[in-house]
UniProtKB/TrEMBL annotation:
Organism the protein comes from: Sphingobacterium haloxyli
PANTHER family: DNA-BINDING TRANSCRIPTIONAL ACTIVATOR DEVR_DOSR (PTHR44688)
Positions of the HTH luxR-type domain: 188-253
Gene Ontology molecular function, alphabetical: DNA binding
SUPFAM superfamilies xrefs: C-terminal effector domain of the bipartite response regulators, PYP-like sensor domain (PAS domain)
Domain of life: Bacteria
Alphabetized UniProt keyword annotations: DNA-binding, Transcription, Transcription regulation
GO biological process: one example: regulation of DNA-templated transcription
UniProt lineage: Bacteria, Pseudomonadati, Bacteroidota, Sphingobacteriia, Sphingobacteriales
Protein name: Helix-turn-helix transcriptional regulator
Amino acid sequence: MKERQHLLSELWGSYPAYLADERNALSAHSVGKHLADILAIGPCYYYTIHVADYSLHHPADTILSIHGIKKYPETLQQIIDLIHPDDIDFVIAAEQATLDKINEIGLQHQLNLKTSYCCRMRVADGSYHLFHHQAVLLATDDDGRLITALHIHTDMQHIMSVNNKIVLISDIGERNNYCQINLSEQPMTTPPPKLSKREMEVLALLAQGLSSQQIGDKLFISVQTVHVHRKHLLKKTNTNNSSNLIKKCIELSLL
């Protein structure tokens, strides 16, 4: 029995092969290692969750100022309480979609996956902004069940204010998994362009604010090759600069 129940408890509990009942200590180094590869192009914060009791750990200080709260949340339900009531059903559907897809891919690969979707959350002035939720799985038990996860929430209101209701599951490892799940009632009018694995890598690093030289150094390719990939990205997305490229790719759930 979980010590601290929350709105997603029943859903998560219906996937016993996915969630572990034991706890595992998480070092701050593990968090920092993954944060370097996470998209955050606005005010953001992170925390880790122990699924054995749904407790939160390692919260970033910015969680207080962004949401206008005085104490660090200690349970997942306290985070859920910040979500717009009209978005709760979508969040539940998004979580179920990610669980189903991870099961399909194979639980043995879940540590190489990142999941993301958007929802509205209350901010310090009492209004609601659209946030980009990202989850990276950090540790599993001997049976491959999840023990700890890292959640990152980024305020996206300055980029987009309408939720496209698309769930993205992408690979942070070598298997090159990539899946979009459209949970909106409307079909996607414009299908996302097909990007190569290298173009996806360049796009992710651009979104992190890296220069062409830094991207080349990180990917062990020349600056000229980076420029070629950037030109291809602009052409495929029908954009004319990096800012519009990143905005368009977020709207298309390519990031």
